[in-house]
Predict the 3D structure of the following.
Amino acid sequence: MDDWDTVTKIGSKVTGGASQKETVVRGKSALNAAQRSGAIVGTEKKFSAGNPSSKPGVEGQRLTKVDRSDDIVPVQKVSADIGAAIRTRRGQDGYKMTQADLAKKVNVPANDIKTLESGQAVKNQQLLNKVARVLKISPKTGKPLDEEPAKGSSSKK
């Protein structure tokens, strides 16, 4: 048993005039002195004390569901449709720019735009939202937002 997991108390739990007050011992020398003097010494196990992340079995409890499944969950990638939509939108008038220009506008490395357009990028919704805002496209479908009719407007002639 580890010293960090136990509490040693000296004295009794009975409150009265002549009995000693219960104290917590922090070192071996105080424990030995208490045992030599004939005091009542009790050792108790600590429960839920300290940082739970430092205990070895706690993280495994959180990951039980993952451990029980043998399936390897693939990482979500950006769909090729969105990559193609970004590529075509960059080529349209009013939005003509290189991958480096787009990367500079959204403040990311140019390689991130390259992998995003190729469909090899791991899905990063924050990056998709930034690119969609600059190019005025939907981050979910890749369709242009400025060519859609305004909501509530009628097209009667």
